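INTERNAL TRANSFER SHEET
From: sequence group
To: structure group
Subject: Reverse transcriptase zinc-binding domain-containing protein

Please process the attached sequence and return the structure record in the designated field. Keep the field labels unchanged so the import script can parse them.
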Amino acid sequence: MLNLERSFDLATINPATAMSLPLLAAVYVPPGSSFSLPHKVKQMKVSDVFQYDPHLHFLHWKAPRDPSLLQWKRAPGSVFRGLTSGQLKLQSYFAPVCRPAPPTESVVTFAPFVEQLQLAEGTSFVAATTSAKTFRAAVLSSVLSPMALRNIAPAQWKWFWSLSLTTIQRNVIYRLIAGCIPHRRLLHFIMPATYASPLCPVCLVTIDSAHHLLFDCPSKEQVWQGIIFEFLWPTTSLGDIKAALLSLDFSDIWYCQTTGIKPYRILLITLSQLWLAHMRFIFDHIPVNPSVILASIRSNVIHTIEEDGCHAIL
Ligand SMILES: [Zn+2]
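Return from structure group:
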């Protein structure tokens, strides 16, 4: 629903509905304005700074000395100055309720907003007898997929979903492509109270990232070098491996020293074993040991070859 085409400019709302909106829904920073909204505005409702005039039926800003404004410290004053200077504007649907008007319904209703939701070809969302397929098409057409996902050709996705992988093998590469690896820099950014440092918890010297966690941290890089030496063409670089994994295009990594297994399987096994080793380090405090990880990759490779061999016989 959030992704449907919409413009609420034409929605007509009543003062009661306007008062119940988050303040952020009532104002916007126009293009070219350098206004920076105070943090507190995110928690505020329209009714925190506006009040309803029961005689003239409109909303107006509370008096500057209104005691209810005190809890918001300087935020109301800052928003007010933004509005009076034009650095901040009222949304088109909100402005009319700030002008005296005849009395209207006092029931809070979001129907005026819902009526503005549009499906393809300008059909109103409310009027349409919509099939799930039309709804999905309308949503998809208004969403631009992240850059990382756009780098992958549809044929590569089709191929990827056709592979018989373990859940963890599929999960880790998908997280890598979609930018969902929980590295320390990200965790520190989201929860600084829990994760005090953005540094890699393994080597403790580099600011963490998805690539550092899975490839570049010295102990992980040692594993990749071991894999290249043992299974792949010796001049394969870590850059080649990253490029192949992020594009799901493994055509440049076609050579494998071991028969009975494709190189992409070895890369996916390595990625998943590195992830597991990292999780064991985080949750069970088991040190990241490249020799141990290499041994588990080797046994996984052998297991995969045997399993594929069995399937071929059947
Ligand atoms: Zn590290």
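Handover comment: The mean pLDDT is 89. Residues 295 and 310 are 23 Å apart (CA to CA).
Transfer complete.
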